[in-house]
Write a structure and sequence with these properties.
The chain is α/β, with parallel strands linked by helices. About 35% of the residues lie in helices and about 20% in strands. The chain has one domain: 3-Layer(aba) Sandwich (Rossmann fold), CATH 3.40.50. It has helices spanning about 10-15, 75-80, 85-95, 110-120, 130-140, 175-190, 210-225, 225-235, 240-245, and strands at about 35-40, 45, 100-105, 125-130, 145-150, 160-170, 190-200, 250-260, 265-270. Helix 5 (about 130-140) links the parallel strand 4 and strand 5. It is globular. It starts with 10 loop residues before the first helix and ends with a strand.
Amino acid sequence: MVPRARSGTSPRTQGSVAGLMRLTAHRMKRRPIPQVVGDSNRPSVTHNAPERPSRVSLECMTDQTPDAYGGIARFYDRVIEPLNAPLRRAAIDLLNPEPSASVLDVGCGTGGLVEALVDAGAEVAGIDLSESMLSIAQDRVGDRANLQHGDATNLPFPDDHFDAVTASLFLHELDPHTREAAISEMSRVAKPDGSIALIDYRIGSLRIKGRFLRAISTVAERMAGSEHHTNWRTYMGNGGMPSVLGDLGLAIDREKITAGGNLAIWIVSGPSR
């Protein structure tokens, strides 16, 4: 799940660390899922979100499950997070949010994309399961965004709430059921005329640099642990993100290939959009 060379670095270089620092941190699926209520068509959550997210609300964890990023959050933010800057810029350029658009970043980590979206003029919410990551994100954005601790498979926001929803480099590490549940939740909270921007590994031809980065990524995914590696292999073996989205009835509107073909950014719409 993650990656983050400075302003002169191409998005392609970022793919060399795409899986390396995700390690064994399956942070978007290890927490108990809050109780939800709703009909069989579109679930409604018990939480009421503000009409426009505008302040940090860092919720405490309610169980004793260790924070998978607790020991590396600072290192990640200082060393890895800057490598993602070109990828973040590419995603925002492709998403092209309107001024004051409401955007949710799922799996927001230490807040790099949240900050970039705020700087682009959006009103931003971020959600993650790592308290240590969220603490750094809070330090980064102050009261300019609404940060919450939560689960990607049960987002604490009402239906049709955000103009755009983003998720960067963590969906490949989830098992197929959890991955589909997370994307379904992103689709639920996005407005009917909104967009979903997903960044992850791509299936397809690779340039020379892409082959090199794919080799490094393969090693990194193995290092992340057996479950993580198995989920990544399943994701890749089943056709990657286009296949996942197709199974959910979601259409790809735009695609930007990066990292020599190793990664891609997809702008997604659904049947109701």
